[in-house]
Specification:
211 residues; alpha+beta; globular; 4 strands; four-stranded mixed sheet; Rv2466c-like
Length: 211
């Protein structure tokens, strides 16, 4: 494979277990391919705010309330401490939310900030709209690249002619490791570079495996 380094832009909402699985795969890809990941925040709350009546009832209240908390804290951290903190804060949040089963509680967010070496005061932004404009701008950048009919994650990579090609997913569980991660990345780049390619999909028969 070429050793030319590739930058992959990755948009995530810390709430989504499937985005979490994909992000762990991307960290593995960085070990086995010349790839650098740039992390960005998107929001399931923003994505669904105008169609809550279409969302299953068990998710509706969370999307209107607590779903804002992790992304607001993440964007505040990015704005106040630089984009380089997003990767480690996402890892800290996702480990507690998903692997450890704590969910996106205020306690889990506070502990994740400590794990990531970030100030505890950032938790104050969970219920503030201080950086909502920046959150929406980041979300819009990802969605504008891939289109409206997707969720999280969104990954954007350079296409064969230098233009950006964005896609949703890949949705995978458990996160591939080693050469399996490399093969999936190579295949992802291949289909992303194919003009007119849009989708491969099958019914999920397994939930996320957090290993």
């Amino acid at each position: 494979m070429s050793e030319t380094r590739t930058t992959a832009d990755f948009w995530f909402d810390p709430l989504c277990p499937w985005a979490w699985m994909t992000s762990r795969w991307m960290l593995e890809v960085q070990k086995v391919r010349p790839v650098d990941v740039r992390w960005h925040v998107m929001s399931l709350a923003v994505l669904n705010e105008n169609k809550l009546d279409e969302v299953p009832e068990e998710y509706r209240e969370a999307l209107a309330t607590t779903a804002w908390h992790p992304v607001r804290v993440a964007v505040a951290a990015e704005q106040l401490h630089g984009p380089e903190v997003l990767g480690r804060l996402y890892t800290a949040m996702g480990t507690r939310f998903h692997n450890e089963g704590q969910g996106p509680t205020r306690e889990a967010i506070a502990a994740a900030l400590a794990d990531a070496g970030l100030p505890a005061e950032l938790l104050e932004y969970a219920e503030k709209d201080t950086y909502d404009a920046e959150l929406r701008a980041s979300h819009k950048e990802g969605i504008d690249r891939v289109g409206q009919d997707v969720g999280t994650p969104v990954i954007s990579v350079p296409g064969p002619d230098g233009t950006e090609v964005a896609f949703f997913g890949p949705v995978v569980t458990p996160a591939p490791k080693g050469e399996a991660a490399a093969r999936l990345w190579d295949g992802t780049l291949l289909v992303a570079s194919t003009p007119g390619f849009y989708e491969i999909k099958r019914t999920r028969t397994s939930g996320p495996v957090f290993d």
